[in-house]
Amino acid sequence: MSTSQGSVVVVNCGSSSVKLALVDPVTGERSLSCLGERIGSPDAVVHMTTTGPDGRPSTRTITPAATTHRGALAHVLQRLLDLDLPPLLGVGHRVVQGGSVFHGSVRVDDRVLAQIHELSALAPLHNPANASGIEAARAVLPDLAHVAVFDTAFHQTMPETNYRYAVPTRWYEEFGVRRYGMHGTSHRYVSQRATEVLATAGREPRGLKLVVAHLGNGCSATAVLDGRSVDTTMGLTPLEGLVMGTRSGDLDPAVVELVAERTGAGVAEVVKQLNSESGLLALSGLSNDVRTLSEKAAEGHAGAKLALDVFVHRAAKHVAALTVSLGGLDALVLTGGIGENAKNVRSMLLARLAHLGLVEDPAANADHGRSSTPAGRITVPGDGPLAMVVPTDEELLIARDTVALVEHR
Ligand code: ADP
């Protein structure tokens, strides 16, 4: 794959949203991107942005009449085929849960689709939506290869010591209760990029010990040794680990029983609140957006300050814990909307990790993203570990996996 000969349709079908992009697998350019919101409800809308030959974007909004995922996506894909587009090379689908079944990306056939449906038991919010996206796209684009790229697959290299919970064995054997990890596509892309960048700076990739912290609305950190995930903070579902925008992260499971008893809510309702009404939003009583929290904290808002402090403390604790799984640390790699943009959070995080030898270079950290600092480094040069910022691009990796599997055939 050295020259661009077309684009890949990258589909990310969530429970109430659909994201779709046409991605050039070589350059990473997007000739079209779509964001559908409130999908499955009567007021569903889809914003479709195309980039013309002059490089200028134009956005139009369409309202899919269909009130199901499948119907809405089919409608958007149909509209897409009416446009003047580069040749389509294949369709790459983001799938959240691949269980212990999928260790990498695969071409979708009826058997794979059935397995994705079966894995819905482990991801009831996500896999059914991902599967309906695949079904709709296969119906509209039957002649193209469809590829499933799993959020969990990168973490299938974790050793058993790191993925088992200390719970009754029957839960593991019969119900699949273990840690799977998520954000695998981002961790894989970012760790590959960091390895390339460090290699150009003379750091041998063999034995490289990275902790990748993906800090976005969802947050997770992964220990990557020699290019393979050996440990990660998310577990059976994306609820475990770091504090996130609206998710609690780590928690004593007894909290669920206590709150269910005190409020009369069912367990499912309490878990829903841990997913959507907790995290930065709950701690601050204000917002899940780090931009808002940073502004308000600077003005002295106690909730915003507490939320950021808890967020950073938990993230630092997990980064340090992951160095145990690596037996050391060469580089901490920050990515995601917060990792890439929130210099105040990066600075707070490094301050809490000073004992690992990470010393912030304030100018490099502040400058990051404006005049690109060498290799995205944000710590002072020295013999110890470094910290760097590497922007993630999950859609590009999905496009590349898709083309690789199409070419492989
Ligand atoms: P998602 O996980 O939904 O892909 P993102 O990776 O876009 O989310 O991350 C969203 C988070 O990034 C939000 O908390 C937002 O406040 C933060 N963020 C985005 N841009 C900035 C910025 N310029 N400065 C500080 N934080 C930012």
From TrEMBL:
Matches recorded under InterPro entries? Ac/propionate_kinase, Aliphatic_acid_kin_short-chain, Aliphatic_acid_kinase_CS, ATPase_NBD
Keyword Metal-binding in the entry? The reply is yes
Identify the domain of life.
Bacteria
Which GO BP terms apply?
acetate metabolic process; acetyl-CoA biosynthetic process
Q: Where is this site: Transition state stabilizer?
A: 183, 247
Task: Name one matching Pfam family.
Answer: Acetate_kinase
Pathway annotation from the record:
Metabolic intermediate biosynthesis; acetyl-CoA biosynthesis; acetyl-CoA from acetate: step 1/2
One Gene Ontology cellular component term attached to this UniProt record is: cytosol
**Among its keywords, does the record have Transferase?**
yes
Cofactor list: Mg(2+); Mn(2+)
Q: Where is the active site?
A: 151 (proton donor/acceptor)
Which residues does the record give as substrate binding sites? 94
Q: How is the cofactor bound?
A: Mg(2+). Can also accept Mn(2+).
* Record's subcellular location: Cytoplasm
Annotated catalysed reactions: acetate + ATP = acetyl phosphate + ADP
Q: What is its EC number?
A: 2.7.2.1
Query: What interactions and quaternary structure are annotated?
Result: Homodimer.
Please identify the protein, giving its name as recorded: Acetate kinase
Originating gene: ackA
